[in-house]
Specification:
By secondary structure, the protein is α+β, with helices and mostly antiparallel strands. It is built from 11 helices and 32 strands. Strands 1, 2, 3, 4, 10, 11 and 14 form a 7-stranded mixed β-sheet that branches. Strands 19-18-12-13-15-20 form a 6-stranded mixed β-sheet, sandwiched between helices. The chain is globular and about 80 Å long. It starts with a strand and ends with a strand.
């Protein structure tokens, strides 16, 4: 008689690298997995899966992922079948050309789904092993569209329970710091900078389930041992920036194009990335390439002073200062000063750059800074969500409705739910609207997810490079949530409405699963037109 084994996994899907961990029930600790053919095993780092994908046959979904792409040299040519940094394009408004392969237009969402599916298919080592729980991590600044895409990918997986968790919160859990400490997590990877103030507490609360943001929840209940100790990770403040190691690679390539006349190509980008990695450990570095067939050769040299000068030229440290100021300001609203922060946890490959670590030391004493688990902390911390961790979180973005700004003769946005709102909301937000024209048959409402009012970024293409551009000060990045046919109309007015009086009352609320819900009441007829209707999933 065979016994089916169950296992819990966590995946930290990164722009440059992806880390997979599994809970080892024998040791009671997480372990980082090496997947044959997919993982790169470096002596100084844990096993990493390079976030690379090559499409062999699009119509059949036949792809090559991870280290196998590099082993076959598929990342060194300008081939539209090769994809890197594709995480940055998922859910974003991309300006640029998306290739048509084998009669199919390939989106970044499709590439990401292929990538994650290939990884998950390799997690089950035998038919007797079942993935019971899977936790995926997301950037703190991810819009609803990214989480919606991730939810769609997960619904098709043969996994009983799927949850997502903010990457900085997972990192705090992964470092295993003392309960009660107030932590600053600096998560700086290939595509994003995430700053998060997190506080860990311990509570004995019988009957509470570990929450997080649940995408799928099976029938299995927690055992009594899981219920007795619920650790709570409370997120106090967040700040994010669409900036990472991929941008730095592009800046280095630009530098060598200008100083040595190099040609921009996947090869020179790869050399620049390797040079950057070397400079995280050495004062100076050299990368040499020679093709014995074409006799093409490159020699790239740079020291840390030159590297830092390139970063300064691109206002790198000003961007970091802006995000740190935003985070510390949020912290002060919660009564947290800089001196109250017990530890600073550095996560991600970009956080290993000496210039970045020196920047952090301008704000915090070196004794508080920890950087020994830059790659594993997120995945290992996320895995603890299946071991009795409850997350108390708040909404990172503000949400508002669109209106016509007569003064500026353009559409603008009125905030209805502020960033920092805890959920589920105990009290709804009310809004009263009237008709704007005679005999108006219905009222439409466009709800949007409001990004930062300063320092927002735009993702776009420059040739074949996916890069970001800083929006000007005062501009607000907005992602409409229901601006489509059939979704904007929230109230049919019977009889038709006329200007001059209030006609409908709307109540907005957010439930425990981050669903934005509305209830609509007709003030003329006293009828409820919508009752607790879901409008969108919030992040």
């Amino acid at each position: 008689m065979s016994t089916t084994k169950t296992a819990s996994y966590a995946i930290d899907f990164g722009t440059s690298n992806t880390v997979i961990t599994r809970w080892n029930s024998a040791t009671g600790q997480p372990e980082t997995l090496s997947l044959p053919g997919l993982s790169l095993q470096l002596s100084q780092n844990p096993p990493l899966v390079p976030s690379l994908l090559y499409v062999e046959q699009a119509s059949q979904g036949k792809v090559i992922v991870g280290q196998a792409v590099r082993d076959k040299g598929l990342d060194l040519t300008k081939n539209p079948r090769f994809f890197r940094s594709f995480k940055r394009g998922i859910g974003a408004e991309i300006q640029g050309f998306l290739p048509e392969l084998d009669g199919k237009i390939i989106s970044f969402e499709q590439v990401g789904q292929w990538f994650l599916t290939q990884i998950i298919e390799q997690l089950e080592p035998s038919p007797e092993t079942v993935i019971e729980s899977l936790i995926l991590t997301v950037p703190v600044d991810s819009f609803e569209a990214y989480r919606h895409w991730l939810s769609g990918v997960c619904q098709a997986l043969p996994v009983e329970q799927v949850r997502i968790l903010d990457e900085p919160t997972a990192a705090a859990l992964g470092y295993g710091v003392a309960e009660g400490d107030t932590l600053l997590v600096v998560d700086f990877g290939g595509g994003t900078l995430d700053l998060s103030l997190v506080q860990l507490n311990q509570e004995a609360q019988a009957g509470k389930k570990p929450l997080g943001f649940i995408l799928k929840w099976g029938e299995k209940l927690l055992g009594e041992s899981d219920r007795q100790k619920t650790r709570i990770a409370r997120v106090l403040a967040k700040a994010g920036q669409n900036l990472g190691g991929s941008d730095i690679d592009n800046w280095l390539v630009d530098y060598f194009v200008e100083t040595q006349g190099l040609t921009r190509s996947p090869l020179t980008t790869r050399l620049a990335e390797r040079l950057k990695i070397q400079l995280s450990a050495k004062r100076s570095a050299t990368e040499v390439y020679f093709n014995d067939e074409t006799f093409e050769s490159y020699e790239l040299k740079l020291d840390q002073d030159g590297f830092e000068a390139i970063l300064k030229e691109h206002q790198f440290f000003e961007l970091l200062d802006d995000r740190m100021a935003q985070l510390l300001q949020q912290g002060r609203r919660s009564g947290i000063e800089v001196s109250d922060i017990d530890a600073v946890l550095l996560v991600g490959g970009t956080a290993q750059i000496p210039a970045v670590q020196n920047w952090v030391k301008q704000y915090f004493d070196a004794s508080k800074i920890r950087s020994e688990k830059p790659f594993e902390a997120i995945a290992q911390g996320a895995l603890q969500l299946s071991q009795g961790i409850e997350i108390q979180d708040f909404l990172y973005h503000s949400y508002g409705i669109r209106y016509w700004d007569r003064r500026n003769n353009c559409h603008n946005w009125h905030s209805i739910i502020k960033a920092g709102q805890a959920y589920p909301m105990s009290e709804p937000v009310e809004l009263v609207l009237g008709a704007s024209v005679d005999n108006q048959p219905s009222i439409e409402l466009i709800v949007g997810e409001l990004g930062a009012q300063t320092g927002a970024t735009e993702v776009y293409f420059d040739g074949d490079r996916l890069i970001t551009r800083q929006l000007g000060s005062g501009q607000t990045a907005v992602q409409p949530l229901n601006d489509r046919d059939g979704a904007r109309n929230i109230a049919q007015l019977t009889p038709p409405g006329n200007p001059g009086r209030d006609r409908i009352k709307i109540q907005f609320s957010v439930d425990a699963q981050r669903s934005l819900r509305i209830t609509v009441e007709d003030l003329l007829t006293n009828q409820t037109l919508l009752q607790n209707q879901i409008v969108a999933q919030l992040s």
